[in-house]
Amino acid sequence: MKVVISVGGSILVPSDIDTAYIKDFAKLANELSNKHKIAIVTGGGRTARKYISPAREFGASEIFCDMIGISATRLNARLLSAAIGDKANMEPPREFMTAMKAFDFGKLVVMGGTHPGHSTDAVSALLAEYVGADLLINASDVDGIYDKDPGKHKDAKRYERIPIDKLVDMVKSYSAGAGKYELVDILAAKIIQRSKTRTIFVNGRDLKNLKNAIEGKKFTGTVVENGG
Predict the structure, then answer these.
(1) Is the dihedral of CA 127, 4, 186, 73 positive or negative?
(2) Fewest Cβ atoms nearer than 10 Å: which of 88, 134, 165, 189?
(3) Domain extent for 74
(4) Which CATH number fits the domain that encloses residue 76?
(5) Number of domains into which the chain is organized
(6) Nearest in space to 206 (alpha carbons), one of 20, 21, 77, 42
(7) What is the pLDDT of residues 150-179, one digit of tens each?
(8) What is the rounded distance in angstroms from the CA atom of residue 44 to the CA atom of residue 104?
(9) Please, are residues 17 and 79 in contact by the beta-carbon 8 Å criterion?
(10) What is the pLDDT of residues 29-69, one digit of tens each?
């Protein structure tokens, strides 16, 4: 299969760099690449927000803040590439054509953001569409899609399956500000909707569960029903 994984920056760098987790993730990525073509898109997470917040205080525009966020995503991508080793590209592709060439060449592609206004979730959805991926995995710090914020509401319920139209409706009011994307941003949801790429949301910290989701085994998460 061709698999694109969007991994949140806050999973790779929750507060400090989680070297143990990154090593384990890299090991899994290498293992999966023996059977599948793998591309990974890293988010900026707290590293991005750490810089974006004071930049806003200094009066920086949102596009400037987006560019800061993109730099953070590429920093995380380089770190993960180093952990993966020779199979990965050392320099994060800055455009989809470059990523596609590396993908076709057999590289385990690792990249960050591309353009201002595009979250890395949107980049992963666009990349999945561009390479004709069989599966898109959204690996965040939440184990799926809930009817409301599980961090704020104890009675929040996780969807095992959710129609893409409902997901689009849920996220259309989310902020588009730099570093402010929540569950998934509207652009990512709309790309998933149009491409019909099979998409699964899981908690990226649980690597065994993530592997199960990719390999078609029993897992905890949310499947997006989009006709793909």
Answers:
(1) negative
(2) 165
(3) 2-225
(4) 3.40.1160.10
(5) 1
(6) 21
(7) 888 889 899 999 999 999 998 876 655 444
(8) 26
(9) yes
(10) 999 999 999 999 999 988 898 999 999 999 999 999 999 99
